[in-house]
Amino acid sequence: MAEHENAFPLPALPSLEQARAMCAAARAVPGACQLSSQVKMLDQVHESIITMDLSGHITGWNKNAEKMFGYTAEEAIGKHILFLYADPDAEEDAEFRDTAFLGETGHEMEVRRRRKSGEVFWASLQLSLSHDETGRPVGIIGYLSDITARVETEKTLRLHARIFEFSQESILITGPDRRILSANPAFTKMTGYTEEEVIGRLPTLLRSARHPLHFYEELWRCVEETGSWHGEIWTRRKSGEDFPSWASISLVRNREGRICNYFSIFADITERKAAEERIHHLAYYDNLTGLPNRALLHRLLEQALAAARRYRRSGALLFIDLNRFKPINDSLGHAAGDRLLQQVAERLRAAVRTEDVVARLGGDEFVIALFDIARREHAARVAQKVIDALEPPFRIEGHTLRVGAAIGISIYPRDGNTPETLLRMADIAMYRSKEAGQTGYMFFSREMNRQALERLRLESGLRQGIAQNELRLVYQPKIDVASGRIVGAEALVRWQHADLGLLPPDTFIPIAEETDLITDLTGWVLDAALQQVRAWNEAGLPAFRIAINLSARDFLPDLPERLQGLLERHRVAPDRVQLEITESLLTQGNAQVTGLIESLAALGVSLALDDFGTGYSSLAYLKRFPIDTLKIDRSFVKGIPEDENDCAIARAIVSLAQTLGLHVVAEGVETQAQLEFLSRLGCQEIQGYHFSPPVPPATFAAMLKAGLTLQPR
Fold this sequence. Notes:
26 strands; elongated; Alpha-Beta Plaits; 26 helices; alpha+beta; 4 domains; Beta-Lactamase
């Protein structure tokens, strides 16, 4: 029998063959001397040896048997051997007792036995007969070795072999020189290479030219330094076709710490990437013209403004509204109107530099973003170039059509430091241009000063308003589509200004976002909302979940601790709270934000991704972060069911959420048609004026008391 790998070196101990010889010698000693001599000899053997009479009762028990089973010789001798069986009713070694009687030896079997502790283990068992001096069989000798580790290892190896064989993901195993040793069938199906074709070759045959050489150098450096690498990578099939894959590469070291193997597991993510691209295109590009839409323009403007602040650059926004489009669209039909818009888009693209952006906001409104201009006269030249480009007539379905444009221009960062502000200023200037004449352009000017003064006034007032408790919360119900019951509410803040009256959030929240007031504002909202929930709990109102919006600037290191303190102070269960965060927060990708989001989830609160589809989050973020709810932005709900783009985006978001097991809430639902469309898609919750506007606490409490159901308004 082979030596155990974990056995200590005991050169003085006899081998199994020598043990058998000892047993034979012991059997030659008559009477009581035989048993005493036999036991002393057996104690020198490092295998467990048990002797039995022909009926199966134990007559001998060496020290290693005591170690193996936990029973002393006094406890074991005299008992029937069956008390050591894992299954006393098993006849697993009956055949070998029979062969022992026939005089055969050396036959080995694997059996399950039970220790005194109750633990079941695997053992290698060999049986032989013991004879007296006349040659008559008088007993049975069993030799046992614990092979549990070996059996479990073999089981694991068999499992790994089946995983390797039947895995749907490609698996490659290489040696320390990175030459391929083995590839599974999924690899052949995915790449077109058979295992025979790649054995002995380097994995470089799968490299795609889409990645520069330093990408692979960095990949292998990461594997060598950290032990693994994983990420998206382009892979080349035998046919030469590149495909996107998600790969995980790891190394294996032997006991001496030297690399003995590398293994790579990778999956074809072509379909997932295509789905991402479809959703991205639906969310960020106008389906009719192929131009960037408002969401993408917003993102590009944020980047441009950041660069403008960093490098002291200037830029301009040209807000373009076509003249005479509505009568053309009404008289010739939507198909002709769509074709006209497509041709306008082509002319606008041709009128600007490749680094500038032409976007369609919707209807007959377009925006041109000019990046890095030296003087505002450059914006004026581009505006005139656009007017000239639109001057020649358009030929649409046999009709000769003429359209002009009114253009409003805002300059950044002079006229504003947010995309919304710049668009609003350019829009104001466009209307003034339209008022001045059908075709032409105008720069934003006087309103800028008024706006700046108004913002300064509001900022000062907001700081005072928070300190003097001038803020109020209203609650907009969230309705379960299937039952019509109120299942939650979103807490929304209003400002009861001493002079201006009740102010909506879009009046002061952007100001708070740009200052240090947002954390104070959010802290007030959290405290007030949880205090109100506690009051409703004590009043015996039915349980529901309260949703509270968080700003990216709220994500400071003490946020989880502050929230936990508020939950404990107001005695509100974490699962009664949902925090709504924005896509832009996820895309920051820094360790602090990641840690804070995970800490918030660990508290037990729900996390919702607000305004989903308006930002630029990769689907990977939905897997990376503990998000459980998606909110379809009201900008996509507004056009349902008439706008095909909005319908397609809503359909894609609900389908994505269902695939990922996420809850879906649609906000801004204002019509029965919108409700019915979203219900058919499988949207679980609805929020909007179709059911109820945001209402004061007392009104919301009355709604709950009325039966937790709301009829459409």
